[in-house]
Amino acid sequence: MHNKHHTKLRTKLLTGFGITALLAAILGGFALIQMNKLASLNKDIYDHPLAVSNAVRDIQINIANMHRSMKDVVLADDKQQLQAAIDKVNEQENNALASFEIIAKQFLGDKEDIQTARVAFLQWKPIRQQVIDLVNAGKIDQAENITKNQGAKHIDTLNESIEVLSSFANAKAKEFHQYTQIARQRNLLFMIIFITVIVAMCLACGIYITKSITQPIYHVIEQINIVAKGDLNHKINMDPSDEIGQLAYSFDQMTNDLKLIIANRDELDAANQQLTASEQQLKANEQQLRAFNQQLRASEQQLKASNQQLIASEQQLQITNELLQASERKHRGLLDNLSVGVVAHGPDTSIIFNNPMASEILGLSESQMVGKTAIDPAWKFLNEDGTEMAAENYPIQLALNKQENLRDYIAGISRPDKQQITWVTCSSFAVYYEDGSLEYILISFVDITARITLQKHNQQLLQDLQGRNEELKSIAYISSHDLKTPLINIKGFSDLLIEHCTDMQNLIKNENVQNSEIDTLITKDIPEDLNYICSSTARMDKLICGMQKVSHIGVSEIDIQPIEMNHVLAGIINIMKYQTDSNNTEIKIDTLPGCMGDESQITQVFTNLIDNALKYKHPDRNAIISITGKIENKRSLYCIEDNGIGIHPDHYSKIFEIYHRLDPRQNISGQGLGLTIIKRILDRNNGKIWLESEPNQGSKFFVYLPMES
Amino acid sequence: MLLQTQEQFDSKLILRPEFVFLIVEDEAGHYKLIEIFLRKKGIKNELHWFENGQSVLDFIADLKSSSTNKKKYIVLLDIRMPGIDGIEVLKKIKENNDFKDNPVIMLTTSADQQQAQTCYDLGCQAHIIKPPGQALLKAIANIAMGL
């Protein structure tokens, strides 16, 4: 529906009339076909029943005539009359035969019937011939007799057989008539319906087309009315694909042009008014100019007076200047001999001046500094932690950006001509012009290298001290917990021993005593007490030895040297050969990077790690230990991987505690010192150890050590 | 055993037989000392010795299934043990809804205030320093009286 709005009017009209014409043509064609049908039916009626019945009637007439002519033959008076009568009979006979031909051609019924009638007719011929012969012989009576009896009889038979044909033809005629009647009624009904449908379709088509033409026109009229009422901004905005749309589009353009024309006219009016106003202003300006001119002249005179005053001032200034120069010389002397470095920067950070101390501290000569904003890239400031300082944190930049004075800002100076870092504290002081704009920033540097060096040394000492303190704390913990365990045994069983001894004394004194009681005391109780006491003292001894071993790591001298790791491991494997061979252990060692450390201590680290891997091997499989290494983040990273019993993540940190062993049910030799010693050694060698493990699968111990330099 | 001071005599303790002691102690000597101490104090109740934390937890887990159990358990729990330590065992006991109402007495070798506080926060009945003595007896007496 929507699309049809876009078809052109011409198309619409053509389509409408085309459809109507087409429908009319269909109607006419149909009517023609129906008329043709009626005509053919009519022809059938004529061709068959009518022709047959006519022929039958002719035959009947001819037969009747023949019969009568035969009478004439019998009654002929002379030879002439007789011949005339015979000719007549022959003629009528031929007529009847011709009629038979017609019937034979047109008859639609059984052809047998025609044959019967024809045979009957032909049988008549001998009878007739007999009569004629008899008449010729003069036997009139006999002839008359034959005519009256045989002839009349035969004619009846003839008539009967012909009647069959006639009645069939009549029936057929009736049938055709009925056909025609039915066809007529049917055609009539059909034509009425067909005409009604076509009229309705034509009407619908007409109404639709009319509507589709008039509606957009009404719409356009409505829109045009709006514009006509003065709203030039209104647009019809129709799809310009049909004639009305084009009309609307043209109208819109016209409206637009009109608007532009009106706008131009308005502008013109405004410009005109402005022009008039400008003209008036010009006149006013001219008057003002004249007034200014007068004022200018007055000012000129004033200026001349001022000039004279200025010359007087200049003389005074010269005197002041001389005083100032003297003052500067004094200040200069002060600055030159100050033990603080002073640098003055302009607002663009360029150096205006510096004193000799500044040159000395910064390691830059006056010529290297004055007038410069950028200096030798090998020269740089450092942060307090020794890292390179970002340019925006340079003292002058901070002083400029923060807009407040720096106080005791600590910075290091790395100079290309000096190995050691110079440390300074910086303070800044900004000097402003009277109008508030920055004149220069004064930055002073105090050399505090000695103080910082001392501080750093102290910090290192403090760190070491904290480490020792931790160590002490852990030893205290061990002594309070682990050493107390055997001590409690010793005390408890000593008390029992005393008790048992007292019991024994009392038993010996008592004479009624049974030997079995003394026996129990001597063979069971007292030895048990002593056994506990002895084993506990042995335990204490072991623990104290272990502690000594651990604390020894903290105090022994270490010699940090480059270590060739593959060499170290080859040595370890060689020593452990008996152990590994008897266990069917497979040890795989990659090419490992070197590292820095104390060789004997690092050897112990790896010995302990491999020893642990062997101790905690999985009972169901041969141990496979693989050692790999790489450089990561400028450090050497080693990984010792085994396929042993593994460690639950909950225990990762505990296993490094002194005397800690994980599974009490496993009867594994050792004191729980191995990992503690490893951790302490790595602490001292700037290394680190951690692990990843999956219970029942195996463990991976990772060791970090400083990279070989 | 024959010569008993007045004090020792007074501190004899007889418990109802439904009390059963579960003693978790990795050190055989310490267990022996505890056993001798309890027997000396007249306690004739059943004693079960567990050499590590896991075995007592296994025992407790098996108890859960027998609901007809009318016994009352007193757990004496050593703190520093290899594997699962006493504090962890205490935590697991208090997480066990069927067993958490049974009293637990922690046994330790040294006075560590922070450790004691941790144990009390976790719900132990007492925190006692070894060797076993009057403090342990007092704690057991308190439990027996339902204090």
Describe, in plain words, how this protein is organized in 3D.
- The complex is a heterodimer of chains A (709) and B (147).
- Chain A is an alpha+beta fold and 709 residues long.
- Helices cover 66% and strands 12% of the residues of chain A.
- In chain A, the strands form three sheets. In chain A, strands 2-1-6-5-4-3 form a six-stranded antiparallel β-sheet. In chain A, strands 8-10-11-13-12 form a five-stranded mixed β-sheet, covered by helices on one side.
- In chain A, a hairpin with a 3-residue loop joins strand 12 and strand 13 (698-706).
- In chain A, helix 2 (79-106) packs antiparallel against helix 3 and helix 3 runs antiparallel to helix 4.
- Chain A is elongated, with a radius of gyration of 73 Å.
- Chain B has helices at residues 6-10, 28-40, 53-63, 86-95, 113-122, 134-144; strands at residues 19-24, 46-50, 72-78, 104-108, 126-129.
- The longest helix of chain B has 13 residues, at 28-40.
- Chain B has 147 residues and is α/β, with parallel strands linked by helices.
- Chain B has a five-stranded parallel β-sheet, sandwiched between helices.
- In chain B, helix 3 packs parallel to helix 4 (86-95).
- Chain B is built from six helices and five strands.
- Chain B has a domain at 23-69 and 96-147: 3-Layer(aba) Sandwich (Rossmann fold), CATH 3.40.50.
- Classes of the chains: A alpha+beta (709), B alpha/beta (147).
- At the A-B interface, helix 10 and helix 11 of A face helix 2 of B.
Summarize the structure.
Chain A is α+β, with helices and mostly antiparallel strands and 709 residues long.
